[in-house]
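Input set for joint prediction.
Command: fold jointly, output tokens.
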Amino acid sequence: MAIELLYFAWVREAIGCDGERIEPPAGARDVAALLDWLATQGEGYAEAFADRARLRCAIDQQFTTLDAAIAGAKEIAIFPPVTGG
Amino acid sequence: MSIRVLVQEADFDIGDELARLQALGGGGVASFTGVVRGGDELAALHLEAYPGMTQRALDDIAAQAQSRFPLLGLTLIHRYGTLVPGARIVLVATVARHRGAALEACAFLIDWAKTKAPFWKQERFADGTARWIEQTATDTDTAAMWDASAEHGRP
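tokens >
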């Protein structure tokens, strides 16, 4: 099933777009595996996802961890740790 | 209990917001206003939000404050967009029968808003360069102390 990906802050800048609709590869069970695959899709992706410790994510607008399963997800956002307030 | 949570580009009027809470009839109104710090050739602070999720996350934080503290009302307004030094970024305000709950809920709300709401700050300098602000350990540690604390009370 297609997933809407969203990128924020420097993740968005490195990749060069604020989001895209993708069909995840069959083997990708969690967000980390999805990032492994995306990292092969271009230099910007590889750069954005190089250091996983600097990445956070949300599935369907709920914060979660990179080891969260993506089955059934409609929207997955990838971003740096938040800095509001 | 009156809860007012806004994510907006526009500025807000602190006086109006505090008067709204005071009218709820408590004994103490507390507030925190976050402002863009000047200096270091900073031209502007850009705040990026996650449309939809940011409002939802702040609503959740407000609901947490409501369940932890005996409040009569709370207001949480967070701006996004490009803000110049001296501009207001965020307002947290609370009203309770007594000052303790108002002050503690206020601290709780800003600590959680800093670490549990999807916003990202970028500093933009006069020479055209820009830098994304990194999350600090102090911010996450302070927010985590509220996680560890009991139903309500100081971290």
